[in-house]
Amino acid sequence: MKHTMFPRVRRWRRGYHCRQVEAFLSSVEVSLGGHLPPMAASDIRRAGFELVRHGYAVADVDHHLDALEERVLTLQTAASGRRGRPDPASDEQFLRDELSGPHMRRFPRAGMLRRGYDVDDVDDFIDRVTSVLAGTDEMTVDEARAAGFCPKRGGYDEESVDETLDRVVEWLLVKRRAATDVAHRAARTDVETAGPSA
After folding, report:
1. For the chain, which residues make up each domain, given as ranges?
2. pLDDT > 90 fraction of the chain, expressed in percent and rounded
3. pTM of the predicted model as reported, rounded to 2 decimal places
């Protein structure tokens, strides 16, 4: 079977396992078609695949998954109905409240015998997020998606941190989409105000 959904790396390089990528994307499309329970944007964000020789190019698959994640988030918003429209300001306040804890106590701990995320790494990232929320720093969706933390025994519980990271990414996506919508409306208004060209 030929795998041609994405470009493939050279035979001696490693890329994503082709069958795993295709099976996952097929399940997403089936879900979007209403034949399976709806898949959340966070499910797409957390998808992982084995790295094998002559697999699919990582950057191409990741780019497709990023676009698919935003598409699913848009559908989630639409499915919530007229009264369920996203409220970036409310989301911001929720994140501020959630991330307002003191250093080293922002998330539950994994326990001394289990690996979690390095506390300093996570706290540094959260400090950056709080600066973005305060309007004194900026962060792109890609930066939030790429956030990584070293494993460490007794660190922050991974699931708790990952759930917050999902909310940060989704807030940034909604914020970016809202800014794009405002820009499109402004451009349309300018064209209508200018009227037909002579």
Report:
1. 14-79, 86-194
2. 64
3. 0.76
